Give the backbone structure.
Amino acid sequence: MIQQKGRLLVIKLGALGDFVLATGPFAAIRAAHPNEELVLLTSAPFAEFARSSGYFDEVWVDERPSRIALIAIQRLRRQLRRGRFYRVYDLQTSDRSSWYFRLMRGFMRPQWSGIAFGCSHPHTNRKRNSMHTIERQAEQLAVAGIPETPLPDLSWATSDISRFALPARFALMIPGGAAHRPGKRWPADNYRTLGESWLKQGVTPVIIGGPDEADLAAEIADGTGMLNLAGQTSFADIAALSREAAGVVGNDTGPLHIAAICGCPSVVLFSDESDPSITAPRGPDVQVLRREKLGDLPVSEVAGALSLR
């Protein structure tokens, strides 16, 4: 266990799936530094979720200034330096977060776990970009002196979902995903057909997603008896729904990671636009189905892969 006292910074900006997978490293870092002040630098959508985790003493929101926004850059630089951190765990390991290492150069530059050139605890495995996020971050922390990293855990993410007036038996659908990558989405008509088959089994499909996916959810649900909650659920709501749901089918997108970690029987659909060996959700009951083009994945195969509990 690391004994030095002081303040530490963890950098994890997103996206949602990556943030959720980092809850194991968050727990490992907190366990290694039980009596020190732990600060998280993250993006605005994840700030309240991170605060509720109990891992951090402070949560800072990164405005993610462009490199030509000189005033914002100076404000960020001052904030990072005034934090007086003796160590930084960069779990984002991106060009942006490595740039923050350069912003902190000077007399009080902290120890740094990440991939920034010249940092004190570099993760130098040349195959790191082909490793699953969980194994990659565990190896990074081991290099920094934290030998054991638990699996992601969301047991702390709780919510009262009674306001949704859910039926006795329901299953989740997550038909959305990055709007700029439509190839990662199984066709809406397929979700509608799958949902109609669930209804015949006495299972109500509950569609979840972000506000920008409300139209997609409406296209699937309208006139069917499915429940459309797109845009109405927090991250904690998704966790609570996942613990109660009979199962979940969804694309390679962030909320599926929450569902899988919370133990919901999960079927995740991948096209050739992403690699499940690197990004697949992890959990006790996860199956991955993949096609070069998701439109070629039949509804019957997806329905057969999920055993509703």
